[in-house]
tRNA modification GTPase MnmE
Amino acid sequence: MHRNLDTIAAIATAPGRGGVGIVRVSGPHAAEVARCCLGRLPSPRQALYGPFMDAQGEVIDDGIALYFPGPHSYTGEDVLELQGHGGPVVMDLLLGACLAMGCRMARAGEFTERAFLNDRMDLTQAEAVADLIDAGSAAAVRSARRSLDGGFSRQVNLILSALTELRVFVEADLDFSEEELDLLAEGDIQYRIESLLDQLATLTEQARQGNLLREGAHLVIAGRPNAGKSSLLNRLVDREAAIVTAVPGTTRDVLREHLSLDGLPLHLVDTAGLRQSDDPVEQEGIRRAWAEIERADLVLLVVDATQGEGEEEKEIRRRLPPRLPVITVYNKLDQLTQLPADASDVLFISARTGEGISTLREALKAQLHYNGHPEGLFTARRRHLDALARTRDHVQAANDQLIITRATELIAEELRLAQETLGEITGRVSADDLLGEIFSAFCIGK
Ligand SMILES: Nc1nc2c(ncn2[C@@H]2O[C@H](COP(=O)(O)OP(=O)(O)O)[C@@H](O)[C@H]2O)c(=O)[nH]1
Ligand SMILES: [Mg+2]
């Protein structure tokens, strides 16, 4: 266990003016700070109303103090909360008084970091605290709450114990037999590995959805000039965000809009039409369009249905990053008298009349594998997805060893690596730099 000898303090409420503002203190000197500031130590977990004084005994403010002796506190240490009037100057004076009494300013996320280090929560829960604070929708709040309640950790721990059992099994075999597995054990191990792979796949899909809900998807609208990209953006966000004209090359800057698709945050990007151009401004617009495409999760390739696909579209498709999903939409459906015969896997829409837009929205959800049911999800991060993928690779490698070499030692090693990798998610095994990275993204006072 880590020992934090510093007592830390910070303003826990948002900066600015408010009815109430809170200064939070955590660490071994919290009780001393309470006595100095309040004249006495409040009874544990009971509100004490009174004046707040600075180190010289001068009254700064009055309000309610709460004292939570460790380990039954947020951080696991002794915690003091001073709830005063929420003015920035009052709060600064109060914080200043705490610092004068021997506290140090807390770093961003340090309270939650201490909660983690004192085993009050694991890493997914600590991250869920930040996600809850940053949540941009009710669905995101619910999924962060679920992670905070340990929903994600429980699933990870289940797989971790399955891995432990399997490792015990394999390593026992390593002790008793020669270098190769006997057939009976092999069947059992094979079965267990397959079931592990299944569990990992299920959890990965849940985490992917959770991450999608947290981060949203980057959707780039691309195509040649005048196909109706900006009109489509406007239609999707239901307002005149982008300038639409009949002049090809109207859009030059990259335009960003946000949209919630049944709870799924979409970051829409409208771009300059892709074509050869001698105009340096347009060229820069096109360069930026390609830069956006490189970063996209999904591209909407807009084609003018009255003209169909030509050399330009071929050229665009050639340049699209491999493996980037693309939805092709034929726009200006209102101008068509009949549908082209060779266009079965494209969507027909009219940005002008709105026809086909609801189908497009469904196609977007399907392409992003968003099931539209945020209930039951927990928030997850790329870090988690990455760890899950590497865990799967190790389990898969163990499986391959089982089939190809049947070398117990190699199987055991892959399973050990799998367990270590999966443990990164909850923080059972984690490097200090990883912790620093996670907690520094928090706000001060949390
Ligand atoms: N008839 C029809 N015209 C459209 C439609 N969508 C866009 N346009 C027109 O096509 C022209 C180019 O549209 P714009 O959205 O600026 O295309 P962009 O260059 O791809 O962004 C404008 O004159 C639009 O009014 C549509 O669905 N039907
Ligand atoms: Mg445009």
